Amino acid sequence: MKLVYRITLSLIVPLVITLGLWGWLSYRTMARKIHADTDMILKEYSDDIISRMLSGRELPERFNGAYNTYYIKEVTPEYAASNPAVCYGEAETFLKSQEDFASSRVRKQVFMDREGQYHEIAVSLPTFEQDTLVEHVLWWTGILFVVLLVALLIIGVIVVEYNMRPFKALMAWIDGYEPGRKTAPVPDDTDIVEFRKLADTVRKAVDRFEHEYEERKIFIGNASHELQTPLAVCSNRVEMMLDRPDLDEEMAAELVKLHRSLQHMVRLNKTMLLLAKIENDRFPDKVKVDLSDMLVKAVELNDEIYSYKEISSSLSREGDFIHEMNEQMASVLVTNLVKNAYVHSPEGSGISVTVSGDGFSISNPGDMPLDQDKLYHRFYQPGGRKEGSTGLGLALAYSVCERNGLSLSYDFKENRHVFRVILKNSR
């Protein structure tokens, strides 16, 4: 989950609780205000009737145009003593104008006239208008709650996204970073202290890594170069010793083993030197290379070399794959991928090569998928060391692709390893 969405979701619960509490309090406050206004109207109406009665003036009609109704009855002193002076309640009252009963707010009050007689007055006011108003208040409060919640969430996402731009720019830079390649400076265009510190930390780490990387490349290149002559001398001397007529069988067998080891070291050294040259961009010259023809020749050559394994090969040429790159690097790419398929295929199996206008694929049988995380690491050999393999073939192929606008991918389907090389912009 993206950080911006996690932050937003973390705000939802307290936001919903806060807004819900605010909406409930607003509704309760407005409802109480409406009921308080109703009670005030009833009090004024009751006080007016009592005042008229005590002063001997004419009382209003029991049913007026405002739906207000009232009644007055005499009560005993005992009743007056047992009932509060003023009380409010809800009741069903008959509305003459509507010829029907309606929910009403009722106010009852016990009072005494000038002669000392107790009376109870009850005034009522239909509450359907107030109830409708309260429902409207509840409805609009709910709508306002939803609108505010959505608005705050949208604003929250926008604000977080805006403030996370420096972090996203830094992550994009890290994703595109390749050791040894020229890249743009680490982005630090922000006034957020934490992001500036993070960018500075990344910059220092990259500088250290680049320094170590350059030193490693120089060391590998120099070491491989210096080892060429001693390895060649040792190999030649072993061959000379194998040609001696007085060599016994046991010594000859040991020398053969030594010679094989030396040859493996020679191949390994040459590959390491080639890899160092590729990483140091020692192959700047580029021409249009027909990789289709290279694949055809590579398949034919490996058919002869590995004829003892009785591996069948099929090549489907759907188009000509022509790409501008260094010719030697193209040969390294094709040779290593084709050789890798033959080396790691069991005897009597089949290899399939498909060529199109934007790339090619090579597949060979296998029992289980390769480790994607280690696939292009140097000296990675799944299932143990194979004859004729240095463990650097895929690393070489990957390095060539990365420096020539190509993409090398791996897939395992239907018990076959599939390596595919295509143009990066054709994905």
Short summary of the structure?
Helices cover 54% and strands 19% of the residues.
Unreliable stretches = none
| Mean pLDDT level | 78
Helix tally? 9
SSE string, helices as H and strands as E: HEHEEEHHHHEHEEHEEHEE
Helix content: 40-55%
Strand order, biggest sheet? 6-8-9-11-10
Measure the end-to-end span: 25 Å
Largest sheet: 5 strands, mixed
Strand content: 15-25%
> How many structural domains are formed by the residues?
3
| Shape by Cα distribution | rod-shaped
Structural class: alpha+beta
Number of separate strands:
11
Rg, nearest Å? 46 Å
Keywords:
427 residues; alpha+beta; Methane Monooxygenase Hydroxylase, Chain G, domain 1; Heat Shock Protein 90; 3 domains; five-stranded mixed β-sheet; four-stranded antiparallel β-sheet; 9 helices; 11 strands; 19% strand
Protein model, in words:
The chain has three domains: 158 residues, no CATH class; 87 residues, Methane Monooxygenase Hydroxylase, Chain G, domain 1, CATH 1.20.58; 140 residues, Histidine kinase-like ATPase, C-terminal domain (Heat Shock Protein 90), CATH 3.30.565.10. α1 packs antiparallel against α3, α7 packs parallel to α8 and α8 packs antiparallel against α9. The chain is α+β, with helices and mostly antiparallel strands and 427 residues long. The strands form three sheets. It has a five-stranded mixed sheet with strand order 6-8-9-11-10. The chain has a four-stranded antiparallel sheet with strand order 1-4-3-2. It has a two-stranded antiparallel ribbon with strand order 5-7. The chain contains nine helices and eleven strands. It is 54% helix and 19% strand.
